[in-house]
Amino acid sequence: MNVTSQYRAQQLGLLGLAPLVVFTLMALLDLCGGLAIQLSVLYSAALLSFCGGIHWGLSMRLPTSSDEQRRLTWSLLPIVAGFAILVVGHLVTLPYPVILMLSLLALFHLFWFNYERRKLSEHPWYLEMRARQTFTTVALHVVMIITHST
């Protein structure tokens, strides 16, 4: 990927974090705080789905090798995990199911980034971008958890 495309991808990646930042600010300022937290949970699950889609696309380039077939299978994990977290969060009878969902989503974002570090080492610019996005996402989740539990 040329430098211009990498720069554009990084800009769009930062723009993709904007909804989480807005939802976090809304929760902190108690502007529809409950709705903001719910939207944050849903958006976080959508982000996981997008991350899996990146690997789906990469594996479709050369779908014949066994490594690419394995990557194709693994690329489904983020959407399935995100959906399962949403379902469990709504079925569990805990006092704070949103905290459970945010915690599990944050952990899965970290897990997926670790997976990408091993599988995409040939794309250091992408891993640098994803590191910023992942840690920002997790930090915003932690702020939401603190906001929700007070």
Automatic annotation (TrEMBL):
Keywords: Membrane, Transmembrane, Transmembrane helix. The keyword S-adenosyl-L-methionine does not apply. The chain crosses the membrane at residues 12-29, 35-60, 72-92, 98-115. InterPro entries: DUF3429 (IPR021836). The keyword Transmembrane helix applies. This is DUF3429 domain-containing protein. It comes from Pseudidiomarina indica. The lineage of its organism: Bacteria, Pseudomonadati, Pseudomonadota, Gammaproteobacteria, Alteromonadales.
